Amino acid sequence: MPDTGPPPWPLAKHSDGSPDPIGIPGWLKSHPELRRRGIVLSETLKPSYVFATNWRDQSVAAYAVKLLEPGTDEAAIYERLSQDTTSSNPCIPCEVVRSGQPDLLIMPHIYEINCVNYMKLSLSSVLGMFLQIVEGIEYLHARHIAHLAILNLFQDVCVGNTLIAFEQQVRLDPRLVTNKVYIIDFHTSRQLDFGPGHQHAVPITVSQVKPPSGLKHFDPYSWDVYCLSDLWGYMMKMKYYFTGPPPWVALRINRWLIGSERGCTGPCHCRPTARRVRQVLTIVRWAICVAELAVWPFHRITALYRKT
């Protein structure tokens, strides 16, 4: 697992030679692989690690460049996933540049899912977005990859690890799919020998999600599902921020994802697998869609009556 020390590459500096914690390193600005692709970095997204071109200019495609820390599986995972062009692949279209240390990851700059206005969406639409993430985790688990950081919390805001492509970005970069949710950031991810139901617990040393019961070892696949409960909770908080608590079905989904932790050291059965979550929530979403369609005429008639 990666450590939490400073990155092993030269950092940006001010003109007087003092460290610039939010600057773009000069060696990266002039990197031959970026210059060859016409990529001009102008902004820092994550100090010392992630940088971007001018994404505010809506007339050209924007790119993000991440410096990949050695000693992790991140570069290998991106290379492995980028070979699969099927629609089920949750990995964002990207390119790993192995031109010495550090390796570079070049990908489209798109928005985090916290940019979505959840309050304007129906519950079935929000659940559909969440299902995309569940399907992505299921895809990774089927390939013995545990993400281990699907929810990245910063001051109670979900950022970074789940992105969504909007129509304007798709027009500028046809590799993207409109309204598709992409999973990124495999910095702490693991490629494992065994799949779900066969993998024993491993140490979870780097996480911004509070582990249940203070435990330090988890079945990594089960840990991903546990973190999905926090992500679903965030989405429900945003949708019902001004209208009161979420409906009982949303709360029931959250409790189901959390499960009943028993501190398993072997394959965990405290909560459902990602595959089971996808199967059940697909049916639940269908039922919610039917309910929403059933109440729509009532709301429409009520609105017309109030206008008269």
Describe the structure.
The chain has eight helices and 14 strands. The chain is of the alpha+beta class and 308 residues long. Strands 1-2-3-5-4 form a five-stranded antiparallel β-sheet, with helices on one face. It is globular and about 60 Å long.
Gist?
Helices cover 35% and strands 14% of the residues. The chain is of the alpha+beta class and 308 residues long.
* Strand order, largest beta sheet: 1-2-3-5-4
Helix content: 25-40%
The overall strand count is 14
Shape: globular
Oligomer designation: single chain
As a whole number of angstroms, the C-alpha radius of gyration is 21 Å
For the sheet with most strands, the description reads: 5 strands, antiparallel
> If you average the pLDDT, what whole number results?
89
Q: Please state the structural category.
A: alpha+beta
Between the first and last Cα atoms, what is the distance in angstroms? Answer: 65 Å
Report the sheet-strand fraction. Answer: 5-15%
Q: Could you give the order of the helices and strands?
A: HHEEEHEEEHEEEEHEEEEHHH
Number of contiguous helices: 8
Uncertain runs with pLDDT below 50, 5 residues or more?
A: 154-158
